[in-house]
Amino acid sequence: MNDMTIPNPIEAARVAPPAPLGMLAELTHRCPLSCPYCSNPVELDKRSGELDTETWKRVFSEAAAMGVLHLHLSGGEPTARKDIVELTAHAVQVGLYTNLITSGIGVAREKLEELANAGLDHVQLSIQDAEAENADKIAGLKGAHSRKRIFAGWVLELGLPLTINAVIHRGNVENIEALVNMALEFGARRVEIAHSQYYGWALENRRQLMPTRDQVMRAAATVERLRDELKGKLVIDAVVPDYYAKRPKPCVGGWGRQSLNVTPQGKVLPCHAAETIKHLEFDYVTDRSLPDIWANSSSFEAYRGTSWMKEPCTSCPRKEIDFGGCRCQALAIAGDPAQADPACSLSPFHAKITALAIKDAVADAPDYIYRRFGATSGNARVQITRNGAPAE
Amino acid sequence: MTDIEVLSAAVPKLPRGVRLRRDEVRDQWLLLAPERVLHPDPVAVAVLERCDGVRTVDAIVDDLATAYAAPRETIEADVKKMLADLQAKRVLDLD
């Protein structure tokens, strides 16, 4: 930049934010699966707009130099990128801890071996359910489940550590014990029992996905028991469903505080769902460097720290613990991203979020709206009917 | 609750996917694991550097007792407690 303007004294006095710990690189939005709770935005990036190899490599170098530790190679399906091995090798070379977040579908054993040889640190494999038929229905792809089993075998053979990620919702919430057992059987060291978070595609499918409060309570008890029983064998990490919570989650560890996302087109976001906040302007890695965006982008500044807060957050003793919860959920439910997350019992919208959950959890479950390019606004519902009614 | 017993003859090793790393940006040691960052103190770093998949727990304790000129029993208890804790977190293998 050749900008010779005199620095604004307020800008100059601002303390640089601490470096982020983790970066999610959404290498592509292409994916063989169409899970209805996908965290990708409802408007998916097309292949033609994806960043090229050299740009991703430059971004990884910048990330490592600024202090990012974990790099999550994600998507879509990250292995859909032809340059996935080259990108992984580069990330390893610059010192990043590389985590491949994959569906396990469409990945040849040779490709996985090349990734292992490139120095890939860890594989996270998604599993939709413990029952193959229902798993395939959720994924929107017949035969997906059995192929994942084969893929998990390769991960182990190649000596790579494996985490199983299971997104939990009404369609599989009764099968948590079976899912955990499947993770053990697959040889995983770690399993994520992650209740669906209602943004993006999951928000579109909230009536199809929301479990009852009773199901959530039982799920939590099951996780606690299994965690104790499997201590030293399997680490169980749980993500709680916050529609029934009392306290909000510290979303992404606080806005612009610990992590960042880069979309397939190179847009840098503070979180998955940040684009739902329409007044924010996001910056692209093709226009500015990653450290510059992290430190100075107005989108990161908007809700960083606590100065943007309103009551009840302003006077809350927990404001630097949960950072007001999730901005996108505040927007979605309370209509204002600067409100307290309605998951918080102190929010004036708390009763609303609870009522929404209770209503959706007992609604007749319509068909999933599958994650597809151009499938938004319910105008492209896929005619696959779910098996049975939700267990109550 | 199944408490993990660490045998003196066990050979501790950081498995693939767990890395002890110096973080130059933050000027500290880190143990990187899947979705986790652990912050080992200097003593823990000394132990972890010796978890090379070759040395036994006994050998590591001997080495540390010499290096830190500290009572062997104290070191042994501390090291075993730490290794058990790391194993429970699945960031350490004990063969």
TrEMBL record, chain A:
Key words of the record: 4Fe-4S, Iron, Iron-sulfur, Metal-binding, Oxidoreductase, PQQ biosynthesis, S-adenosyl-L-methionine
Record protein name field: PqqA peptide cyclase
Species per Swiss-Prot/TrEMBL record: Hansschlegelia quercus
NCBIfam families registered for this protein in UniProt: PQQ_syn_pqqE (TIGR02109), rSAM_more_4Fe4S (TIGR04085)
Pathway entry: Cofactor biosynthesis; pyrroloquinoline quinone biosynthesis
Task performed by this protein: Catalyzes the cross-linking of a glutamate residue and a tyrosine residue in the PqqA protein as part of the biosynthesis of pyrroloquinoline quinone (PQQ).
Cofactor: [4Fe-4S] cluster
Record's subunit section: Interacts with PqqD. The interaction is necessary for activity of PqqE.
Reactions performed catalytically: [PQQ precursor protein] + S-adenosyl-L-methionine = E-Y cross-linked-[PQQ precursor protein] + 5'-deoxyadenosine + L-methionine + H(+)
Stored Gene3D superfamilies: Aldolase class I
Designated gene of the protein: pqqE
EC class of the enzyme, as a word: oxidoreductase
One GO MF term: 4 iron, 4 sulfur cluster binding
Coiled coil start-end: none
InterPro entries found in the cross-reference section: 4Fe4S-binding_SPASM_dom (IPR023885), Aldolase_TIM (IPR013785), MoaA_NifB_PqqE_Fe-S-bd_CS (IPR000385), PQQ_synth_PqqE_bac (IPR011843), PqqE-like (IPR017200), Radical_SAM_PqqE_MftC-like (IPR050377), rSAM (IPR007197), rSAM_sf (IPR058240)
Presence of the UniProt keyword Iron-sulfur in the record: yes
Binding residues annotated for [4Fe-4S] cluster, in chain numbering: C31, C35, C38
From TrEMBL, chain B:
Phylogenetic lineage: Bacteria, Pseudomonadati, Pseudomonadota, Alphaproteobacteria, Hyphomicrobiales
Domain of life: Bacteria
Protein's name according to its UniProt entry: Pyrroloquinoline quinone biosynthesis peptide chaperone PqqD
GO biological process, one term: pyrroloquinoline quinone biosynthetic process
Quaternary state and interactors: Monomer. Interacts with PqqE.
Metabolic or biological pathway: Cofactor biosynthesis; pyrroloquinoline quinone biosynthesis
InterPro entries for the chain: PQQD (IPR008792), PqqD_bac (IPR022479), PqqD_sf (IPR041881)
Coiled coil region boundaries: none
One Pfam assignment: PqqD
NCBIfam families documented for this protein: PQQ_PqqD
Keyword field: PQQ biosynthesis
Signal peptide positions (record): none
One MF annotation (Gene Ontology) recorded for this entry: quinone binding
